[in-house]
Predict the 3D structure of the following.
Amino acid sequence: MHGYRLMIPFAVLLFLLLFLSDSALAQRSVGSQQKWQQAVSGAEKEGRVVVFGPPGDIVRTAITQGFRKAFPKVTIEYTGGRGGELATRLKAEMDAGLHNVDVFLTGTSTAVVYLPKQALGLIPPALILPEVADPKHWRDNRLLYSDSTTPDNLIFVNHLSPLIVYNLDQVKPGDVDGLHSLLEPKWKGKIVLNDPLPSGAAHFHFRWIWELLGPDKAKDYYRKLREQAGAVDRDQRRQIEWVAQGKYAVLVAPSGGVLAQLLQRGLKVGVLGEFKDVGGWSTASFGSLVLLNRAPRPAAAAVFTNWLLAKEGQTAWSQALYHMSRRVDVPTDHLPPYVIPQTGGGYWSKDPKPGDKYWLSDLAENPNRTPEEEGILKQLFGR
C-alpha cells in the first residue's frame, strides 16, 4: 500500500518532467522558427548576399542555383577565385573603409594568414536552424572551428587532400606511392610542383612535410624535390592539364577543388591521396566559412549560412567539389576514394605517434610557417 502511494507522486513527477521537457523543446522550436522567419524577411528586404568562394563554374552553378531556388527573393552575387587572391582583395577593400562582402568560403589558412582577427564575425549567433546549430548533425557530435577559443572560422568539410596527380600512361601507382619515391633519378625533370609560397594546397603540403620530418630532414627533402622539378607553377588548372597531356609525369600538391572539377569534366589522371609509408594530411580545402565583421547584409548572410550548412546546401557543395562534408547525413557514395581516410587511421597535429596517419592541417596552430621554414622556401621558390 505504501509502495502504491509512493508511486503516484513519482509518476506525477515523471509526467511533469517529460511535459516540461517537451514544452521547452516546443518553445525552442517555435523560437527558432520565429527567428528564422525574421531572418528570411530581413534578407528579402536587404535584397542580396555577396559571397566570395572557390573558383570554377561547377561550384558557382551549384551554389547560386541552389540558393536562388530556395530563396528566389534574395539575389546571390558569387565571386570565385584563389583564396589568397580574394583575401588580399578583401583586406584592401576593408582597409579603404569598403565593406561589400558578406560571406567568405575559403581555406582555414587563408583567414588566419591574410585577414586580421577583428575582421571576422562570430558565427554561432547566425546559426538559426536546429538542423544546423545542433551538434548531433555533425561528425564527432560537434561543430568544428579552426580556433577552439574563438568561433569565427567554421570548418564544414574534412577529408584527405590529394598528394599527387600522375599521368596514367607514364606512371604506375606503385612507382610513386612513397614520400621519397619522387626523389628517384627517373623522375628528374618530369615533375611539376604547385608553388608552395602562396596560400593553398602546396602551402599545407610543404607544412605537412616540415612537421612530419622535422626541420633538418624537411629542408633536405625540399632541396632534392626542387632539383627534381621541371617546373614550378601557380596556375592550378594548367598544371593538372599538363600532367593529363603528358607534358609532365607527376604534379605534387594539386588543388583538390580544381582537380575535382576537372575530373567531373572527364579529365583522365591518376590521383594518390596518401603515401603508404607516411600517410597524408586532412583538409577543409575551400570548406570553411567566415562571416565578415561589419557585413552590410547580416540577415542575408545568416540565411545563406544556414542554407549552405543544412543538408541541401552541403550535398550540393559536396557533389560540386568532391568534398567530404562534416554533416553526418550527407552521402559519400559520389566521392572519389582518394579523399576518404582509411578506417582506424590516427590523426595528429604535432609529433606523430605510431599509428598516426593523417596530419590535421586546419587547426589554428598549423597554417603558419616557422621563420626557418619560410626562409628555405623563399630561397628555393622565390621569384
User: Anything to note?
Assistant: Confidence is low (pLDDT under 50) at residues 1-8, 20-27. The two ends are 91 Å apart (CA to CA). The first strand starts at residue 48 and ends at 53.
